[in-house]
Write a structure and sequence with these properties.
Blueprint (H helix, E strand, L loop, with lengths): L7 H39 L6 H12 L8 H13 L3 H6 L7 H10 L3 H14 L3 H9 L2 H4 L7 H4 L2 H8 L6 E2 L11 H18 L4 E12 L2 E11 L4 E7 L6 H17 L10 E6 L4 H9 L5 E7 L2 H6 L3 H19 L1
Helix pairs in contact: 1-3, 5-7, 11-15
Amino acid sequence: MSGLRGQPQLVRRAHEARFAVQRKANTEVVALWWFIGHTIIERQQAEPWGSGVLARLAADLRAEFPTMKGFSESNLRYARRLAEAWPSEDAIRQQPVGELPWSHTIQLLDKLEDQHLRDWYAAQDAYHGWSRAVLQHQIATRLHERSGAAPSNFASVLEQGDSELAQQLTKDPYALDFLAIDSDATERELEERLTLRVVQTLRELGAGFSFVGRQVHFDVDGDDFFVDLLFFNWQQVRFVVVELKTSKFDPRDAGQLGFYVALVDDRMRITELHAPTVGILLVTDKNETVVKYSLAGSTQPVAVSRYELSQAEQATLPAEETLTRIATEVAESDETAAI
C-alpha cells in the first residue's frame, strides 16, 4: 500500500476529528429543534389544535430570525414529533440522534415508527458517518435484519473479540437490486449504467472499505495466482478479500476464497498492525447446510452471503469477469477523484 492507505491509524484519527466537530454542531441544532418541539407541545396543550399555533409560531420565528432558514410549518411539525419521540432534552444530548444532521433526524421520524429501530439506525449513522442517501438506503433495505447475518466460520478460526468484529463486516443478503441492465442496451450504454450501479455495490459493502487493488499477483513457488478484488477496512484495520459469483454457492468457491485469504494474510498483512484477513463470498443463492459443512472444513475466516436481484435483473446480469473489471475501474477512478 502507498500514501494514506499505509497509515490506517492516521486516517482513522482524521475521520474521528472531523466527525467530532460535525457532531458538536449537530447536537446544538437538534437540541434547538427539540426545544421548539417541546414548546409547541406545551402551547398546543393549552390551546385548541385548530387555533393555528404552528402557523403563528413559524411566522414569529421567521420575523425574529429573518436570516435563518428552516422555520417552516412543516419543520415545526417535525420538531414536535422529535420531542414526542425523545421526550427528554438530556436524551437528545446524550443519545446518538443528537449527533445527526437535522435532515437525518427527519428521515428517522418519517421512515420508522418503532422507537427502538430509530435509536438503532441513529447509532449506526452516528458511528459510520452516513450521508442522508446512505441512511435512506439502509432503512429501505432493512439493514437491521441483514447486518452481521452472513454465515461464517469466524467464531471458530478467530479470537472471540475479533470474530465478533469481523462478523459485523458481513450482511446477508446484500441488496444489489440496483444492478438492473436492459438487454437491448449498447455496449457503451451497458458499461456506463453498470459503472453507476457498481459504485453502489461497493458502497453496499459497508463503512470503512477502501479499494486496494485488482488482480493482485502472488507467485507461489512458480505458480501464478491473482486475487480479483482486495479491500482494506480502515475501521477494523484488516484486509478483506471479496469474491462475487453469479451462481449458487459451490463448496469449491469457499476453498478458493480461503486460499486467497491465506495468501493475503501471509504476504501482505503486517501482524503487529493489522487484524487477521477475512474473506466474503457473494453468491446468488446458497444451501445453508452445504455452507455450514463447507465452512466447518475451512481453516481460513470466510463468510458466505447471498445478494438479491429480481429475475429480470438476474437474466441481464453480465458475466462475473465483467462485473469484476468494471468494479475495479470504478473504484480506481473514485479514489483518483477523491485525491
